[in-house]
Amino acid sequence: ANERTLSIIKPDAVAKNVIGKIISRFEKAELHVVAAKMMHLSQDQAEGFYAEHKERPFFNDLVAFMTSGPVVVQALEGEGAILTNRDLMGATNPKEAEAGTIRADFASSIDANAVHGSDSAASAEREIAYFFNDNEICPRG
Ligand code: CMP
């Protein structure tokens, strides 16, 4: 089915100047950018986005990292977009990510892991609405 998913290009990948290389992989996989913005997340924005991880031991480090520099937030649309994006990203821990995935190629640690992608339809809906108003999403023509 046609789906939307939220993608974040994280501060490590922005600092490495590989925004375009990462978006190019989405495009090659027939995922279309239907919304995008660059932003430097505040503490509150990062904590709210990752609220489901609040009790996890890595929460503080995660929020510190995600607020350490600008990110590029996008809504991607395409056939099976949620799973397609997760396949492109590879495993959360870049050491376990398959060769040729975004994390294998651009990430350096489990925190500085280059990209975030929604893990389910419910998360995608929440995460897209977290960053974008309806009128900031530009459906494919
Ligand atoms: P992300 O997909 O953005 O969702 C939560 C993030 O927490 C994850 O990517 C990792 O960057 C980070 N993280 C740090 N430690 C862990 C861990 N042990 N398990 C899962 N995620 C972790």
From TrEMBL:
<dbReference type="GO" id="GO:0004550">
    <property type="term" value="F:nucleoside diphosphate kinase activity"/>
</dbReference>
<dbReference type="InterPro" id="IPR036850">
    <property type="entry name" value="NDK-like_dom_sf"/>
</dbReference>
<keyword id="KW-0479">Metal-binding</keyword>
<dbReference type="GO" id="GO:0006241">
    <property type="term" value="P:CTP biosynthetic process"/>
</dbReference>
<dbReference type="GO" id="GO:0006228">
    <property type="term" value="P:UTP biosynthetic process"/>
</dbReference>
<keyword id="KW-0460">Magnesium</keyword>
<protein>
    <recommendedName>
        <fullName>Nucleoside diphosphate kinase</fullName>
        <ecNumber>2.7.4.6</ecNumber>
    </recommendedName>
</protein>
<feature type="binding site">
    <location>
        <position position="58"/>
    </location>
    <ligand>
        <name>ATP</name>
    </ligand>
</feature>
<dbReference type="GO" id="GO:0006183">
    <property type="term" value="P:GTP biosynthetic process"/>
</dbReference>
<feature type="active site" description="Pros-phosphohistidine intermediate">
    <location>
        <position position="116"/>
    </location>
</feature>
<feature type="domain" description="Nucleoside diphosphate kinase-like">
    <location>
        <begin position="2"/>
        <end position="139"/>
    </location>
</feature>
<comment type="similarity">
    <text>Belongs to the NDK family.</text>
</comment>
<keyword id="KW-0546">Nucleotide metabolism</keyword>
<dbReference type="GO" id="GO:0005737">
    <property type="term" value="C:cytoplasm"/>
</dbReference>
<feature type="binding site">
    <location>
        <position position="103"/>
    </location>
    <ligand>
        <name>ATP</name>
    </ligand>
</feature>
<keyword id="KW-0597">Phosphoprotein</keyword>
<feature type="binding site">
    <location>
        <position position="92"/>
    </location>
    <ligand>
        <name>ATP</name>
    </ligand>
</feature>
<feature type="binding site">
    <location>
        <position position="86"/>
    </location>
    <ligand>
        <name>ATP</name>
    </ligand>
</feature>
<dbReference type="InterPro" id="IPR001564">
    <property type="entry name" value="Nucleoside_diP_kinase"/>
</dbReference>
<keyword id="KW-0808">Transferase</keyword>
<comment type="function">
    <text>Major role in the synthesis of nucleoside triphosphates other than ATP. The ATP gamma phosphate is transferred to the NDP beta phosphate via a ping-pong mechanism, using a phosphorylated active-site intermediate.</text>
</comment>
<keyword id="KW-0418">Kinase</keyword>
<feature type="binding site">
    <location>
        <position position="113"/>
    </location>
    <ligand>
        <name>ATP</name>
    </ligand>
</feature>
<feature type="binding site">
    <location>
        <position position="10"/>
    </location>
    <ligand>
        <name>ATP</name>
    </ligand>
</feature>
<dbReference type="Pfam" id="PF00334">
    <property type="entry name" value="NDK"/>
</dbReference>
<keyword id="KW-0067">ATP-binding</keyword>
<dbReference type="GO" id="GO:0005524">
    <property type="term" value="F:ATP binding"/>
</dbReference>
<dbReference type="InterPro" id="IPR034907">
    <property type="entry name" value="NDK-like_dom"/>
</dbReference>
<dbReference type="GO" id="GO:0046872">
    <property type="term" value="F:metal ion binding"/>
</dbReference>
<comment type="subunit">
    <text>Homotetramer.</text>
</comment>
<keyword id="KW-0963">Cytoplasm</keyword>
<keyword id="KW-0547">Nucleotide-binding</keyword>
